[in-house]
Here is the input.
Amino acid sequence: MIEIRNLTKKYGKTLALNNVSLDIPRGQIIGLFGENGAGKTTLIKSILDLITFEGTITLDGKPITRKNIGKLSFATAEKSFFPNLNAKEHAEFYDMHFGTFRKKRFKGLMDFFELDMKKDIGTMSMGQQNQFEVIMALSQGADYILMDEPFAGNDIFNREDFYKVLSGILEPEETVMLSTHLIEEVSNFVGRAVLIRRGELIGDADCEELEEQGMTLVDYVKKTYNYHEDRVAKALFDITGEAD
Here is the structure.
């Protein structure tokens, strides 16, 4: 389990995360939701120990160090790959450094997305590069797979297919935390919704329980964020002086 306690992060005078506490057990698919600048990326980078912060984050009761960082993998849209290496060379590198590397999963996902094993990753399209980052994160053999807006540049059909494939390949002990704005798209995929607003944890819900209450994930997010349905009409009136 990843245990986050009193996590606080400032960038200069800007408070990015404010006293966030959260448990992330194995075997969950978690949607991390929030507006731009809410603190989602900062939370993920803190878990990965990529930035300094106040508070504590432990993995199975121990601080995250080079000894256990292999239990975490990360997919983003920030090109976390070697651009001059091809897919086959990436796989060989990961297999050398991670004894848990899932060769069969890697090959199956490469075939599914029809990516060229011998093409340098830096020469692929942005969508293909993002697909490759996700493939590597899923194939590393990590217990916790953290994804930060990994679908940039991918069309809706690729995204929908990916959700289905991901649901089918995950082992019961694997956890995925997916930070995305595509709430409606992932509503049938995630089992837990964590909401952040202005650096604070404002919601944490089980999606099955929401369904039993007759509430959709989008409804829950809107309610928790106190979203006003008439805000567009008000804005248009302020701008044009005409009622919708």
Remarks:
- The mean pLDDT is 87.
- DSSP finds nine helices and ten strands in the chain.
- Residues 2-207 form a domain with the Rossmann fold fold (CATH 3.40.50.300).
